[in-house]
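Running co-folding for pyridoxal-5'-phosphate.
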Amino acid sequence: MPTLDTGHVPASDALFARARAVTPGGVNSPVRAFNAVGGTPRFIREAKGPWLTDVDGNRYVDLICSWGPMLLGHAHPEVQAAVQAAVARGTSYGTPTEPEVELAEAIVRRTPVEEVRFVSSGTEATMSAIRLARGFTGRDVVIKFAGCYHGHVDALLASAGSGLATFAVPGTPGVPASSTELTLVLPYNDRSAVDKAFEEYGDRIACLITEAAPGNMGVVPPADGFNGFLADICRRHGALFISDEVMTGFRASREGAWGLDGRPEGWTPDLMTFGKVMGGGFPAAAFGGRADIMQRLSPVGPVYQAGTLSGNPVATTAGLATLRLATDEVYAHIGAAADTVKSAASEALTAAGVPHVVQSVGTMFSIFLTEQPVADFAGASTTDVAAYAAFFHAMLGRGVYLPPSAYEAWFLSSAHDDEAVDTILAALPDAAQAAAAASGLDRPSPSGSGYSTSEKDAR
Ligand SMILES: *Cc1c(COP(=O)(O)O)cnc(C)c1O
């Protein structure tokens, strides 16, 4: 059995020990703990462009990009200047400000939403969108898909009940059964399951929420016409279609995942959620949609929603600077770099005899170490996690920081230049060999608790 190369990182080891003494698992969002790959998470001291530097002084090409937000790379000079100027003007007033108006206008220009409301996290965005959908329709039932992650909203931390179109059960301790008993969890890309749910509960369904193109079980593109089908069946039944673009928004393309199939096919979500890129690396998120629906929100409508730091002037300034700089050239650059990396990874894995599936949505992509097609969560779950752990550590040891979980997209930025891409390409052949050597081994995670494949165990 190959030994796990966890690297020599004494400063990260020491910080991780201190962190675990005062924080559960030593992290503030589970996926950072390396539970799925073992070893010590690198504590990052600073970042510039495509590079992370850890507290031991090691440099890594960053393929996490803060799980999506850093579209322009780290410490982009123009974003930084805008943020510094905003900080100099004070950091929060609890009053309306100009940057939040400008950011709302920028989002309305790039997406089909007519109005937006800012919040501080993607979780709040999806939670609020669902409340609004329930308030607007006067109905209670929510449909989601297995493997789609919408933040840690009680009603959405749900696992499918037994049998098709039966109500869900809590996906984690701490969520009461009463929070998931109005949630239906269906297999992704499965039209007949959606048909059946609407047949059975059509007049009780407030909304269907889906990732516009799932990225949280790895990248799983919607089957041709699937989103349009969802928009249509919702409309016919008087339910709202909520497209969650917290990950894909302003990332998969200039207009997010909607720009890839919504605009071309002519479907429009009733509500959308955004986060990650639109916060420019700060805690900012949003939900938005049709004006007549958004007008049901307080203070104009009866559906209550609020937030002390919502629309924070520093966060909205960072988001606005990011969107202004996110030109067509930025997406073209990221797309080209992504193409180079994914073909090289595929070649290296093929050469090492490691079965894999490469999937993309615009500039986002994932590599699943499996022989099975990956159209839903069941397919994604066939990934060889031991092979991924070995691949991950081999890359890390060669200066490339991949997502520490086999079920994630790899994120690039406009700052990923030739030097960064060449560093990735140079690391791939050895990492593919390491994956081949570990393939099929059921290696226990050295840091304890294993990875839950029953639902998203991340962030
Ligand atoms: C990240 C993410 C969320 C949750 O956002 P947080 O800011 O982590 O709460 C919701 N939906 C999708 C699709 C995401 O990728």
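Result summary
The radius of gyration is 21 Å.
Residues 121-123, 126, 149-151, 211, 216, 244, 246-247, 275, 285, 459 surround pyridoxal-5'-phosphate (CB under 6 Å).
Job closed.
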